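ERR on first pass: missing label on line 2. Operator R.T. fixed the label and resubmitted. Corrected input:
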Amino acid sequence: MTLTTMILKMGDGFGKTCAIFFLTLLFSLPLGMVVALLRMSKNRLISALTRAVISVLRGTPLMLQLLAVTYGPYYLFGISVSRNKLIPVVVAFSINYAAYFAEIYRGGIESMPVGQYEAAQVLGYTKFQTFMRIILPQVIKRILPSVTNEVVTLVKDTSMAFTVSYQEMFTIGKQIANSQTSFVPFLVAGAFYYVFNLLVDFIMGRAEKHLSYYR
Amino acid sequence: MKKLLEINHCRKSFGGLEVLKDLNISVEESQVLSIIGPSGSGKSTLLRCATLLETMDGGDLIYDGLYAARDQGGKAVYASPQELHRVRNMFGLVFQNFNLFPHYSVLKNIMEAPMLVQKRGRKEVEEEARSLLEQMGLADRADAYPYQLSGGQQQRVSIARALAMKPKILFFDEPTSALDPELTWEILRVIRMLAEEKMTMVIVTHEMAFAREVSDWVVFMNDGIIVEQGDPREVIDHPTQERTIQFLRKMSGD
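pass 2 clean. output:
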């Protein structure tokens, strides 16, 4: 197999890699905020429960969670494993990343000086207005570097979908590597991820620059 | 004279510690009242109770006849959120460390609350904001961000932000304490100007000379009670209570 065919074949799977990546961000970024707010809830039970869930999600391998979400329904309830693995893959990734994003959000929100809340309260802002207009924009600026870290990790983590044989780029690369007894597909995959992450870095760098108009 | 603010039998504890002990205070329209006293005397807590940043354990809090809190059997019962929202519209607060919104320009810091909270039109609000900035000597800083300003300038912006809401009464919580000594006069000048315009003000301060000069009434607090109050020249120049004399001696560095 020539290098070009290899790249083309793996390029086919790249669309699926992108699907995991973008769908995971789409769901986990907002879900993380919900989890963060639950985690900071004044209700002790809700807070403790959320904390436990986050702890499990961060403390067990993503690979295991992928397997659990994909095959768990079959072993538990006898529901047959869906042919389209994109759904369980995205569900597992979204839940896992939401846990990480939640802790980043929480750190950012808790780092905000109480004076910002008090100033807004005295001026008559509602709690919602205070959060949306005063707190959240500043939190986003503060957490952007940590979010970039997670996004970069996500790009590479998409390769874990091979454990449930979802035909994304790495899975295809691995199959080619096996059938051709060649290491080249892995190098190609590495290059794909690296270029992808260069792009992520560039975009996040632009975003950080965009928010650097204040301190 | 119309009473704009009345606090009766205010009590407040943190943990087991009683910070405010059955305190009474009232502020009339156009009055400038200064609260002085050592740190830990409860003066900041009193201000925070008055501005609804803390809740009193017991007592009445009345703004221009409107009850924010009413004492019922020794417990302060607060009004509904809607009514408290109306009450908040009646006062402004200038913080010790400004608490400007760093992600907003100077102009937006001043304009957002009148537009968002009071639903006033942009054009009118902007005109007023610009004239307030002019008054504060900051007309050319409208588009700057807080971090680009000196402490004195930031504090003047925060005064403008409070004034843009057209408060009936304006509170200052040690407005010069976070400033370099050479910048305090900027703020004191602004407060003096507001006093001349008959703005009703309550000022917690450590600037004795200033309190003496600008206020109509001085309250000296210690250990959660009012030890002495009256005309500033009386209280500051001829204190009668031992605790006041001690405090003023320390403040003047003798």
